[in-house]
Design goal:
By secondary structure, the protein is of the alpha/beta class. Helices cover 46% and strands 8% of the residues. The strands form 6 sheets. Strands 9, 10, 11, 14 and 15 form a 5-stranded parallel sheet that branches. Strands 1-2 form a two-stranded antiparallel sheet. A hairpin with a 6-residue loop joins strand 5 and strand 6. It is elongated.
Length: 654
């Protein structure tokens, strides 16, 4: 017992002595007011103050910045020591801990010595130009054996006074990674570092220089007029992948002309990932609110790392070449980003660029309908005029981004059928279509596709070469019935529901095990186009808004809806419903519209339901054959919706 007390006492003495030495030798820095510099910096230590409001953090930060500025150049030695400490071999604390580890009486662990280099970065940013006296020492610390990443950040914090030193490092240092770090800091200083432009031009134009691409991107950040270098940036688009990326980013930061060149490059080569990323909204803003910074990463691993703010990319995440697998053996969807990318550009603050994106939409035909619809509401009169002209050239009628009527220059009708809970009319409808050698389009929900009694009907539709497309998996309600058509579902919910629906259409065998193919993951940060096999989507309840049309376009789906003007879409109403419409009234409304419309029913998207359920005794499918006889007698051809759209304004130019 006595032996244990002695051991414990000795151990406590060891700990106390080590602690006193550790605390006693810990630097505190000069004093300002009632505290030393180390105490002031502790007030903004992220490890200490984790839980507080943004307002509290801001007030605390402002107080510490004021104290550091009050110290001025007196703070520099302490801040430099924090960087030098990081570069030093193990210190006293580590040696004491080694001694403690060698004894076996009791397990003792001293507090870890944390990396305090962040204090230097914070301090020099607060000091700004008052820290110029530290520049030579910081340049020395940019050596690979020092702390090059932290030293570069400190030089950046000092500001434009550090630019000559950073450029000297960028042109003379033997280590390419260190040169990259220096250029990153110059770039992050933005237009204030305009004096660096001549040196950056020299590096950019040297084909043997490994940092030509880095200099190109940095030049676009610092030059007050980067558009004067556009010819050189444009040359880089045809170069190696790394230089192409740098050139794309530089063009995106060079104003409307640079962005227009990117759009024109994108049109014939929509899978150019560098151009697609450069057109992302996070890189558009050339002012104080720009969302990108040169990121230094880990020394020795990355070349140039210009990374966008990924939080800003959640609505426009296209990185062409990405693929999505919805389960073991499930379908893979290749990305075709052109239409969504051009549509996203219609939100750009520059009217000139919005106009350029509008003109480029001609390459995507009907797939650009959501964008043309949005642009028709633009604040700029020229954009509105071009959008309306584009819709006219398409020969389509569009409402809220969805196509509601096809080209009116031919006597063709696209018959649309939706299926969800009921299908008592499907057999009669398919029989009559076969009798007329007509093709139609069937939009089916996931629940319809999963019901075993309906699967023979789906096989019949495929066998007769009808179009089978999505109507949503769970028949979601996208918008309220009354008031403004605000969106009731999240983007992730909408797209995951649509993907599940499309999986069942593309891979019929999935119906035996749908859970394995239901998409999972965060669809708020990714978009997965479906492919050409499933190109058109009819929304549930035939009720949607422009946002739904744009989201579906991200999946490669063009939204279509029925042509207004007849009562055909009311064939589901029951006799007990206040909105009941009889089959005779439905039939008469179609005949009347054909007679009164100057274009007859040319390009009409005529919607009917596969079933109305037990609540309706007056089934319109019993008169469907009569309707086909009447319309065929008028000379109309019955085509699939994809055939209707691709004839004019589909995949090619309008």
């Amino acid at each position: 017992m006595k032996r244990r007390r002695v051991i414990l006492a000795v151990s406590l003495v060891w700990v106390a002595a080590a602690g006193l030495v550790f605390l006693g030798l810990r630097p505190r820095g000069p004093a300002y007011g009632h505290q030393h510099l180390s105490q002031w910096l502790a007030e903004v230590d992220p490890e200490i103050h984790r839980v507080e409001t943004k307002n509290q953090a801001s007030l605390r930060r402002d107080r510490v910045v004021k104290a550091i500025q009050g110290l001025g150049s007196n703070a520099v030695p302490y801040l430099l020591d924090r960087l030098r400490d990081k570069a030093k071999p193990p210190g006293l604390r580590d040696k004491v801990q080694d001694l403690l580890d060698k004894q076996s009486w009791v397990d003792i662990n001293l507090p870890d010595t944390r990396d305090r280099a962040w204090e230097a970065s914070f301090g020099f940013k607060a000091l700004g130009s008052a820290g110029v006296g530290a520049i030579p020492a910081l340049v020395d610390l940019m050596a690979p054996a020092g702390t090059p990443i932290d030293a570069a950040e400190c030089l950046e914090g000092i500001g434009v006074e550090a630019v000559p030193a950073l450029l000297d490092v960028a042109t003379t240092n033997a280590d390419v990674q260190v040169r990259v770090l220096a250029l990153c800091s110059v770039a992050n200083l933005g237009r204030a570092a305009g004096q660096a432009a001549p040196v950056l031009v020299s590096i950019m134009n040297d084909p043997t220089n490994q940092l030509a691409g880095v200099a190109m991107q940095a030049l676009a950040e610092v030059d007050p007029d980067p558009a004067r270098h556009i010819a050189r940036f444009a040359e880089g688009l045809a170069s190696s992948s790394s230089l192409c990326f740098s050139a794309s980013i530089a063009l995106a930061r060079s104003g409307s002309l640079g962005l227009r060149l990117l759009v024109q490059t994108l049109t014939p080569a929509p899978t150019n990932s560098a151009v697609n990323l450069a057109l992302d909204p996070s890189i558009w803003d050339g002012g104080q609110n720009r969302q990108i910074r040169f990121y230094r990463g880990t020394y020795g691993t990355a070349g140039l790392a210009l990374v966008p703010n990924w939080d800003a990319l959640t609505d426009h995440p296209f990185l062409p070449g990405a693929r999505f697998g919805s389960g073991a053996g499930g379908p893979q969807y290749n990305v075709d980003p052109l239409a969504p990318r051009l549509i996203s550009l219609l939100r750009h603050p520059s009217p000139a660029l919005r106009l350029e994106a509008m003109r480029a939409l001609r390459y995507v035909g009907a797939k650009g309908a959501p964008g043309l619809s949005r642009a028709a509401l633009d604040a700029d009169a020229n954009v509105v005029q071009e959008a309306k002209a584009g819709l006219g050239r398409l020969g389509l009628e569009v409402s809220d981004g969805g196509i509601v009527r096809g080209p009116k220059d031919r006597k063709r009708i696209a018959l649309l059928f939706t299926g969800h809970e009921y299908a008592e009319g499907a057999t009669a409808i398919l029989d009559e279509l076969g009798r007329h050698h007509a093709r139609a389009s069937f939009f089916l929900t996931g629940r319809f596709l999963l019901r075993s009694e309906f699967q023979p009907l789906v096989s019949w539709m495929r066998r007769d070469h009808h179009y089978v497309g999505p109507h949503s998996y769970g028949h979601l309600l996208y918008c309220p019935w009354e008031g403004p058509k605000r969106t009731l579902v999240t983007r992730g919910r909408c797209l995951s529901d649509l993907l599940a629906n499309c999986d069942l259409i593309r891979v019929p065998a999935v119906a035996t095990n749908p859970s394995s193919f239901f998409p999972t993951g965060n669809l708020g940060t990714a978009s997965w186009p479906i492919g050409d096999e499933i190109a058109y989507f009819l929304p549930p309840y035939e009720h949607y808004n422009l946002e739904i049309a744009e989201w579906s376009r991200e999946l490669g789906l063009t939204l279509v809806n029925y042509t207004p003007g007849t009562r055909s879409n009311a064939d589901y109403t029951g006799e007990a419903d206040t909105n009941f419409v009889s089959s005779q009234r439905i039939f008469d409304s179609i005949v009347a519209r054909e007679r009164e419309d100057p274009n007859g029913l040319n390009g009409f998207l005529l919607l009917l339901h596969l079933g109305a359920g037990p609540g309706r005794a007056d089934k319109f499918h019993e008169r469907f054959g009569e309707l086909l006889d009447y319309l065929a007698g008028k000379g109309y051809e019955f085509v699939r919706v994809d055939e209707m759209m691709t004839e004019k304004g589909g995949a090619g130019e309008f």
